[in-house]
Amino acid sequence: MTVIWRKMAALVAAVLLLTLCGCSRNQREEHHTIVAPEFVPLTTIREDQPNIYLIVKNLDSNYWQVIIDAVRDTGYDLNCNVFYSGTYSEVDWTEQSKLLDEARDSGADAVIISPDDSVNLAGKISEIYRCGIPVILVDTIANTEDFSICYMTDNYMAGQQAADEMIRSLFENGYGDADKVLIGIQVGSTSSQTINERLAGFYQAWYDSAPDSWEICNEILCNDGEIGIAEDCAEELFDKYDLTGVFAPNNGSTVGFARVIEERELHDMVLVGFDYSDEVRQLVESDEYIASTLLQRQYDMGSLALESALEFIDGEETELKFVDTGVIVVNSSDLNSPEVCDAIARN
Amino acid sequence: MSQVRNIMSGKDMMGRRFHFVRFIVIYLVLCIAGIAFLAFYFNELIVTHDEELTTQIGSLVAEKMDHSIRYMSDSVENMGQVIDTQDVMDTPTTYEELIGSVDEATYESLGLIAPDGTVYATEAEINEFEKWELLAVAEEAHDGQVAMSSPYRSSITGKQVFTLFTKLEKNGEYAGVLFVTYPLTEIERMADTRSLDSNTEIWLMNAAAGNIINCSGQEDYQLGSWSNIRLVSGDINRSDMDDYEEWFDNMRKGDDYGVVSFNIGKTRYTQVFTKINSMDGWYIVIRIPGNSLSSASQDYRRDVMVFLLLMTLATFALMVFFYRRNRLENELLQNLSIHDPLTDVLNRRAFEVNADKYIRQRRSCILIFLDVDHFKDVNDNFGHKAGDRVLISFASALKTLFADDGFVSRYGGDEFEVLVTGNLKPKVVDMKLKKIKPMVSELLNSSTTEGDRNDDFSEYKFTFSAGLAISPDNGKTLQELRRAADESLYKVKNEGRDGFSWHS
Fold it and tell me: What burial letters (b/e) apply to A1-23, b meaning 16+ CB within 10 Å?
C-alpha cells in the first residue's frame, strides 16, 4: 500500500510541476565578438594636417579594403592624417561604438564610418556629431539626421535593380510567364538597414514586374555575417526547396551561395548577388553558370567621403545629405564593357 | 490482530483499498481535467480579448494616420486652389511666388509641373523626379483626388519622404500639377505611441511586397527603419505559421483588416493589419505581446490555477487522512467485536460464524474442545487475577500452536475451542496438545501478578482436558462436531481429567 501512496504522491507532484512550471528549452544563439584593433595611421602623419578617422565594417574583406585604399589615396592627395580601424564582422556594432569614442577622445577632426547597425549605432553617431565632429557615412546610412553627408548605394534602388536583373536573367534562360519559379534568399543580418532596404527594393520590383507564377520563398535564412553559416544556409535552402534562383543582398551571403552552387555544380541556378568576391567572380566569368552581381562604387564612396570630410572641417556646407553612388550590374554578357571593367578594376 | 487479519482477510480489505484508490484516481483525474479545461477556457478568453483589443488599437492608429494624410492632402489641395485663383498664368512665375510665400518648415520640398511636363523645382528635386519616376505618379492626380507616391529616400535630406500631387486648373483648363514632399516621419509619428508597451511594434506595410517601415520604438532613431514581413516572421513557432501565412494572404487580397495570434518562443503575440484608406496598398500593422494587453488576466488565471491545484491537493490529502483514520477505527471496532477482551482470542460468536462457514464448505477439519482442570480451585486458592493469568497463558499457548492452522476461541469461563482448518494429521494434533502443559507452566512461572494473594505458581500444577472430533466423520455441522467433541471431553473428565480423547 505504501508503494501505491508513493506512486500517487509522485503523480500529483509531477502534475503540479508540469502545470506550474511547464517545460522549456532555452535556445540561445551566440555571436562571438572579436575586439576591434586600435586605430593605425593610413597616411604619413603630420602635425599641421587634419586628423580623419576611418571606421569600416570588416577589416578582412576585399570590399572594405577598396574603401580603405580610396581613403588612403585621397588622403595622400589632399594632405591629411588618416587613421583607420574597424570590426571583423559586419554585425559588431558595439565595437564600432567603442571606436567612435576612441576617435573622439583622440581628437578626430572628422569621422568616416560605415555603421554595422543602422539603428543601434544611431545614438552614438548622433552623440559624436553633436560634439561638433563632422560624421561622414559611407556604404550604410544610420537612422538619424545627425550626420554630415552619406555616400552610399541607394540600397532600395539597388534591390530593385537586383530584382530586374533576376527577372531578365530568368527570361533569358528560358523561363516563361507560366513557368514555375521559386527564388530563395539568405541575408547577413536582419537588422542591417543596407540589407533590409535591398530586400525591400527587391521585393517591390519583383511584385511590380515578375509574372504571377514566379514566387519568392517565404523562408529567409540569416547567416549572421559568417561565411561558414552562409554556406550552411545555402545548403539548407537548396535541400528544402526546388529553387530556380537565389538572391543574396550582401557579400557574405553571395559568397555562401556561390560556393555551394559551384560545389554542387548547379549550372541552371540563377544567382544574383552583391559585390565582387573571388567566388562570385568565378561564376560570372564562367560560361557554365548563370550569375550576376551588383558592384557598388565603393572606391568613389571612400574618395568622396574624404573630400567631404575636409570640406566640412573647413566649414563648407552641401545641398545634398545623401549621395547615391549607384551600382553596376555585372554579368557574363557585359563583362567586357569599359564601365564594368573600370568598376571591376576598382574592386 | 493476526487472526482478525486472517478472518477479515485478505480480499475484503484489499477490495476496500482498491475502491478507495480507484476513487482517488478518478477524483484526481477529474480535478486535473477540470483545471486543464479552465486553463484552456481562460486562454481562449485571453486570446479573444487580445485580438479584439489589438484590432481596436489598430483601427485607432489607422484612423489617426488617415486623418494625418488627409490633413496633408487637404493642405496640398488648398494650396492648389489658392494657386488656381491667382491671376498669374505662367508656371515659372507661379513657382517663384509659391516658393516665396510658403513656410519651408512644413514640407521637405515643393514645386510645380507645367502642363508640358516641365518640372519647376531645384536641381536636386528635379533629379529626384527622374530617379523615382515621380512624373508617372503625378499623372494619377485627378479632380479632387490627390495622388501620393510610395515612400523613397530623399537625396536632399537622406530621409524617407513621400510626395503628394494635386491637379491645378485655371479658368477651367488644366494648368499643371502642384507637388509637395513631406518627410515620412510625419506619418510614422502618427502611429508611434508611448502609451503602449515598448515591446509593441507598429509598422507601415506595403501589402504587395511585404515591405515594412518601423513606426515605433523607444528611441527616435528606431523610426523609419525598413524590413520585410518575411524577415520578422522567422522566429514564429512553426505550428502558427499557417495562420500567419493566411493572415498575410488576406492582406494581399485586399481585406480591410485581419488579426492573427502566434507564439514566438513562449511569448504570445497578437498582430493586426488595418487598411490605410488614403494610402493605396499600404496598411498599418500592430504587433503586441500578450503580456502587454492581458497581464492582469494572466496573473488572475495563474492565481486561480494555483488555488485550484492547491485545493485539489488539500482535498486529496484530507481524503487520504480521513480514509486512514477511518480504517484504523474500523479495525479497532472490528477487533473489539470479535475478540475476547481477556485472552485476545476469538469470542464465541465470531468463532461460530467463521467455523460454521468453514464447515459448511464441506472441508475437513478438527474441532478441539478444551477446559482447564479444577479452574475454580485456582480462583479460590490463588485469586481471580491468577485465574485470569492461567486463562491468558492457556490461550496464548493455543494461539502459538494452532493460530496458523485454524481459529482459537474462548467458549466461556475456562472453556476454549479450536477449529483446526489446515491439513494437520491427528498425530500432529496429538503432539501439539502434548506441548500445551509445559508451555503454560513455563508461561505461568515466567511472570508475576502484582497485588495478588499469591503469585507463586510453583505449587500449582496446570492440567487441562480436551475432546476432539473430526469433520465430516463425527459431524457435518458445528453443532454436531461440538456435541461429539463434548462427549469426548466428558469421557476424559470421567477418566480423571488431564488428558485428551478423540471421538470414536
Answer: eeeeeeebeeebeebbeebeeee
Determine whether the interchain pair B266/A24 forms a contact, defined as Cβ–Cβ distance below 8 Å.
Answer: yes
For an interface test with B, give the residue of A7, A135, A320 to mutate (most B CBs within 10 A): A320
A209 touches chain B (CB under 8 A): no
Separation of alpha carbons B281 and B148, rounded Å: 11
Across the interface, do B32 and A15 touch by the CB < 8 Å criterion?
yes
Report ipTM for this prediction. Answer: 0.74
% of chain B exceeding 90 in pLDDT: 28
Higher pLDDT, B351 or B8: B351
B387-403 pLDDT, tens per residue? 999 999 999 999 999 98
Tell me the CATH number at A180. Answer: 3.40.50.2300
* Residue A7, domain member (yes or no): no
Query: For the segment B329-371, what is each residue's pLDDT rounded down to a tens digit?
Result: 887 777 767 888 899 899 998 899 888 888 888 778 999 999 9
Torsion sign (Cα): B202, B206, B207, B211? negative
Distance CA B146, CA B83 (A): 15
The verdict on A265 and A251 lying in the same domain is yes
Q: Within this chain, do residues A232 and A339 fall inside the same structural domain, yes or no? A: yes
Residues A74 and A117 in one domain: yes
**Same domain for A305 and A162:** no
B187: three-class secondary structure by DSSP: helix
Of A1-15, B177-191, B213-227, B378-392, the range with the highest mean pLDDT is: B378-392
Residue A33 lies in a domain: no
Give me the domains of chain B, ranges plus CATH numbers.
86-186 (3.30.450.20), 187-294 (3.30.450.20), 348-502 (3.30.70.270)
Host H or E run for residue B305: helix B295-338
- Contact (CB<8Å) B219/A15: no
Name the amino acid, one letter, at B247: W
Q: Please tell me whether residues A99 and A183 are part of one structural domain.
A: no
Residue partners of A256: CB distance under 8 A and separation at least 6: A186, A223, A227, A229, A230, A231, A232, A233, A234, A248
Per-residue pLDDT reduced to its tens digit, B109-168:
889 999 988 999 988 889 889 888 899 999 888 877 889 888 888 888 888 889 999 999
Measured between beta carbons, the chain A residues lying within 8 angstroms of B39 are 19
Q: Which amino acid is at B464?
A: F
Q: With CB atoms and an 8 Å threshold, state whether A321 touches B155.
A: yes
Is the full-model pTM beyond 0.90?
A: no
Q: Residue B152, SS3?
A: strand
**Residue ranges making up the domain that contains A231:** 155-295+329-345
Tell me: do A241 and A105 sit in the same domain.
no
Contact indicator for A335, A282 with CB cutoff of 8 Å: no
Number of domains forming the structure of chain A: 2
Q: If we measure between CA atoms, which residue out of A221, A265, A270, A218 comes closest to residue A244?
A: A270
Q: Quick one: cell of A310? A: 575636409
Task: Tell me which of B230, B266, B312 to substitute to probe the interface with A (most A C-beta atoms closer than 10 Å).
Answer: B230
Average pLDDT, chain B: 84
Same domain, A149 and A193: no
- Output the pLDDT for position A34: 84
How far apart CA A197 and CA B158 sit, in angstroms, is 14
For residue B453, pLDDT over 90 is answered with no
Cα gap B222→B237, rounded to integer Å: 26
For residue A239, give every residue at least 6 positions away whose Cβ sits within 8 Å of its Cβ, in sequence order, or none.
none
Instruction: Decide if B474 contacts B480 (C-beta within 8 A).
Output: yes
Q: Which residue has the higher pLDDT, B423 or A128?
A: A128
Same domain, yes or no, for A44 and A143? yes
Inform me whether the pLDDT recorded for B192 exceeds 80: no
pLDDT score for B295? 64
Collect all residues of chain B within an 8 Å Cβ-Cβ radius of residue A4.
21
Band the pLDDT of B452: cuts 50, 70, 90: very low
